[in-house]
Design goal:
About 75% of the residues lie in helices and about 0% in strands. It contains twelve helices and no strands. Keywords: Coiled coil.
Length: about 260
């Protein structure tokens, strides 16, 4: 991994070349790199060192700080955008992923803790992280280009904030209506279930009444109408009440949409 240390890539290039070759040989053993590509990759790495030694990024390689700088971003600026280093960059990416694991994600958690405040929404945290990441990308707050678009965006921030508040208010209103609608719909469904049970009871009582009447008539006895009276009472009382409640609830649903 020493071959990817920006400081060594400038100060001790011969040592870096040796380390690069050993790293590639190890990757071949692990079946991560094709053995036929080793010589090509070594030559590409040597060319990279030559380019770094004579480019404007040399000072950044020389003064690289592990605590503050990101090696992946620095190497990307040298290789990721240059087609002649395309094959080498693919290998470097794999090595960096193996080396750092979840370091970038964990670094993000640390930044989140630094930016968090009480009652801060998720959208605000995301926006702050985007700002911080951009500062890191350009090399600091003082290196941000103050463009017309940026000035216009800043001047219209209050207007966009009020738009956001209005939209948030509208969404909350819609959510409240949907919750109320669901509550009423649940009540309607419950009433329909009760109606179904009541209708079943009425049917059973009516059937029983008719059965007893037929049996009494066959025996020449007086018919008892108590069961029939009870079924009629249910039909005329509780059932009608349920039907009215269901009708009222259903009528209120369209007004909530």
């Amino acid at each position: 991994m020493a071959c990817l240390d920006p400081r060594l890539m400038v100060s001790d290039q011969e040592h870096s070349k040796s380390k690069c070759k050993r790293l590639l040989e190890e990757l071949v053993t692990l079946n991560r790199v094709d053995g036929d590509d080793v010589d090509i990759l070594v030559a590409s790495y040597k060319e990279l060192l030559h380019d770094v030694d004579g480019c404007e990024l040399k000072s950044r390689f020389k003064d690289f700080k592990v605590e503050d700088d990101r090696v992946d971003m620095l190497l990307y600026e040298c290789m990721g955008r240059n087609k002649k280093f395309e094959k080498l960059w693919r290998v470097v990416r794999k090595v960096l992923l193996v080396s750092h694991g979840q370091a970038s994600v964990e670094r993000g958690y640390s930044l989140n803790r630094q930016t968090e405040k009480d009652n801060m929404s998720e959208g605000v945290i995301v926006a702050l992280r985007q700002i911080i990441d951009y500062f890191v990308l350009v090399g600091g707050m003082l290196k941000v280009d103050i463009t017309k678009e940026l000035l216009y965006s800043a001047s219209s921030s209050t207007y966009r904030y009020h738009q956001y508040l209005e939209e948030d208010k509208r969404k909350k209103g819609q959510e409240a209506i949907q919750r109320k609608r669901k509550t009423v719909q649940d009540e309607v469904d419950d009433l329909k279930k009760r109606k179904k049970v009541l209708e079943s009871d009425i049917t059973n009582l009516t059937t029983s009444s008719e059965k007893y009447a037929d049996e009494a008539e066959a025996k020449g006895e007086k018919t008892s109408h108590s069961i029939l009276v009870k079924s009629n009472a249910l039909r005329g009382g509780e059932l009608q009440v349920l039907e009215r409640e269901i009708e009222e609830k259903v009528k209120s649903l369209p007004a909530m949409s």
